[in-house]
């Protein structure tokens, strides 16, 4: 990452997070992954400033100062190295967007407008969960089984796979032996909402027929070509149609996902769909392959469909159980400034970089876990070096390591830690660099963070399996903080209200029950004999987490997009107390974010007579609006005709092109001796300027479409855009219908004049 100059006390990273929050909502900033590690094509370690997953696509965001990519200002080697980094990101299949620090400082509105253009008005952000093991998968070969019982054997095997918490499977059956029948029977037995995907309409229709015959007590629909059955229990869809309409489906809408002809899964369209949905179980179907490639297909599935959650990974023995000890400090973080998901680093350093807290960390290690291999996560390079020095002075083999070190030196330190020559590793900004020491027994969370991604990345570094490793012990250093800037801890992360020092916070239900039985007898679990804690110690933890609270709510920003009413009306109703938010989050003295529950949204929509708008009805509402268009002037149909003529494939039109279209439309009428407009219209007068026409377009015809969230004006780019989810779904036939309606409306209007 570029070594940025501070801007008014904020780093460029903080500035970007702030602009991102203003654009998409403060709760969405939690999806930004800062300093994401990857390898370039030469296997050199690299870091993307930010990584984001949007609709199954990874997006890298780079923030640079102007000198970083100018060959006349930086060395040729540095310039070429930066090109290699960007090209390697593209090679990995990422989209890459870059902004300059100067733009964040001087052109914030431009950056926000460009973010909306690049990421969309209605983005589908998802957490990046690469700290978890991939799904367990298994290929089931049915090619050599007797026809009469092979399907039942396959069903039994699939049942056993799910009992073992396996979440993906591949079924090999020779052509003509009833793969689809087996899949439908398994889906019926599971009894949950199902999506069947195939790459041809013939396969889709055949599957729908089989579902209707074998599972007749639920509804089955087709989502392909011109047929779009959306509300059935089973949907058989073409991969192309589903991929084009992902925004109409929730990512967890289907519990069972079936992929027919699974060898096609490497295609981009399949990758997009597989990475979007989060089913409980995914089944791939394929005929017995000519070569043994089931491992390749399973790898495709494992890296595109959803990952195991961390609790399930522990349950099935992929990760070790986790215990926790909370160490309370007297440090007050309540006044530390923060930007959505991270503290202002200077404020944070000034609070936690104090001798007393640093010594507490050292004393805790010496008292509780001396000689156990430990990673201490620190807030900065300086913090890591200070802790390492204090431990070294106490006779402990400790070293600091960070992303700022030379790669070769960093590797040497890591190797010494892996060999056990270094007992304590004080780490800063070194979370996902491919380093892995399964023998790590203890983690110290000494870096306060409001980022769920960062905290759980740190946790993942210690959860790998190792011989003789019963569990991982996490020490949470709990500083005092305000309600809305409390850092993450194990108990907040996993919503655990009860705390017993050293007790399991992540483990199987069987382990937890057995341990609870010992506590009730006043005994400590055997695994904790070495830990100096009392079995009777107990406290209740305040696990309020505004990010979790807001997760299922709608921000005021989103509220406006969901109803056919102006932004100003919503703001006024909130200000006057006619609408009461369910959650108010004060980010600073001057920044407050308001959230509403879904039922609250529906209640106010009904109370005030507003129409609810979502992805499924937005296009229909737009078409209804066009068909019912009321006209005081001729402007609305002229605007629509101009959009149809000049819009690019994404529905964007330059405002200057619309101005030219309006000018020529009314000039042509004038030249033909036709009525131009009402006498008070600017088009009926002489000497009308482009600026007047622009103001007229934005204040009259456009405003109504904007209020309905059907069009947007990107001021800094001089562009008007039809809502992407509307434009993308408009068929050529519907565009022709709009044109016809506009011409008819104009004809009726001018006859009336």
Number of domains: 5
Major sheet description: 8 strands, mixed
Instruction: Give the % helix.
Output: 40-55%
Based on CA atoms alone, the radius of gyration comes out at 30 Å
Keywords: ATP-binding, Helicase, Hydrolase, Nucleotide-binding
Domain Helicase ATP-binding: 160-307
Organism: Anaerotignum lactatifermentans DSM 14214
Domain Helicase C-terminal: 361-519
Could you list some keywords that capture this structure?
about 750 residues, alpha/beta, Rossmann fold, 5 domains, eight-stranded mixed beta sheet, seven-stranded mixed beta sheet, about 20% strand, disordered N terminus, hydrolase activity, DNA binding, ATP-binding, Helicase conserved C-terminal domain-containing protein, Helicase_Restrict-Modif_Enz
Explain the overall architecture.
The chain is α/β, with parallel strands linked by helices. It has five domains: 12-126; 137-306, P-loop containing nucleotide triphosphate hydrolases (Rossmann fold, 3-Layer(aba) Sandwich), CATH 3.40.50; 315-373 and 403-547, Rossmann fold (3-Layer(aba) Sandwich), CATH 3.40.50; 552-608; 618-752. 41% of the residues lie in helices and 19% in strands. The chain is built from 29 helices and 30 strands. The protein has an eight-stranded mixed beta sheet with strand order 6-7-13-12-8-11-9-10, sandwiched between helices. The protein has a seven-stranded mixed beta sheet with strand order 18-19-17-20-21-14-23, sandwiched between helices. Strand 9 and strand 10 form a beta hairpin. Residues 1-10 and 144-148 have low confidence and may be disordered. Residues 361-519 form the Helicase C-terminal domain. It comes from Anaerotignum lactatifermentans DSM 14214. Pfam families: Helicase_C, ResIII.
